[in-house]
Amino acid sequence: MMANTALGAKKKEITRTIIFKDKEHENFYHEYLQKCRYQDAYHKALVYCLGLSEDTRVNVERIYDFETGLVQTSCLGEGWQTVVMPNTFGKRLKFGIRNIVFIKKLIGRQCMLKIRLQGTTGDIKWLTGILKRDKRVDVLEVSEPFANKGTNRYFRVYAEVEKSKKL
């Protein structure tokens, strides 16, 4: 009996090219990916993102424990984090300037953005209220709060927003 495949058909090999910000980013990625316990997509994405900024590259050992595989939440209030605005948002809510700038850039284009907010439930409600009142943004959905591992005080929610169609 003849097989139902085309002669000469070969399994396609999927190749992907990673685009790095600069040489430092690429060097960091290759060095620190080897330190991860696993080489899966999650860890590749984590190391890629940690390598984007010079601040996170320099402080990577304060952010992520490569031996245990855990994010070190104690680093969230440290002074080297120039993206956090402690006087405006409080030390507990980690919604950085970069996120705000990114949203402002997206205001000029029509697209949906998923934002992760992390902090106390009160802080999260406060910021989602600001987002909902902003006429430039339509808040499509806000998830239920998820408790962060190891604490019953800090939570995270995911909000989907897009540029308002009313403008």
Map the helices and strands.
Blueprint: H1 23-33, H2 41-50, H3 54-58, H4 60-63, E1 64-65, E2 70-71, H5 86-89, H6 97-107, E3 112-119, H7 121-133, E4 137-142, E5 146-147, E6 155-163
Antiparallel strand pairs: 1-2, 3-6, 4-6, 5-6
Helix pairs in contact: 1-2
How would you describe this protein?
The chain is α+β, with helices and mostly antiparallel strands and 167 residues long. It folds into two domains: 17-82, no CATH class; 84-167. 35% of the residues lie in helices and 17% in strands. The protein is built from seven helices and six strands; from the N terminus they run H-H-H-H-E-E-H-H-E-H-E-E-E. The chain has helices at 23-33, 41-50, 54-58, 60-63, 86-89, 97-107, 121-133; strands at 64-65, 70-71, 112-119, 137-142, 146-147, 155-163. Strands 3, 4, 5 and 6 form a four-stranded antiparallel β-sheet that branches. Helix 1 (23-33) crosses helix 2. It is globular and about 45 Å long. The model is unreliable at 1-5 and 82-109 (pLDDT under 50).
Which structural class should the secondary elements be placed in?
A: alpha+beta
Estimate the strand proportion.
Answer: 15-25%
Q: How many domains, in number, for the residues?
A: 2
Kindly provide the radius of gyration, computed on alpha-carbon positions and rounded to a whole number of angstroms: 21 Å
Q: Tell me the distance between the termini.
A: 65 Å
> Which regions have little confidence, pLDDT < 50, spanning 5+ residues?
1-5, 82-109
Annotation field: number of helices? 7
Sheet bearing the most strands, described?
4 strands, antiparallel
Looking at the structure, what is the overall shape? Answer: globular
Query: Would you count the extended β strands for me?
Result: 6
Instruction: Estimate the mean pLDDT confidence.
Output: 74
What is the N-to-C order of secondary-structure elements (H for helix, E for strand)?
HHHHEEHHEHEEE
- State the helical fraction: 25-40%
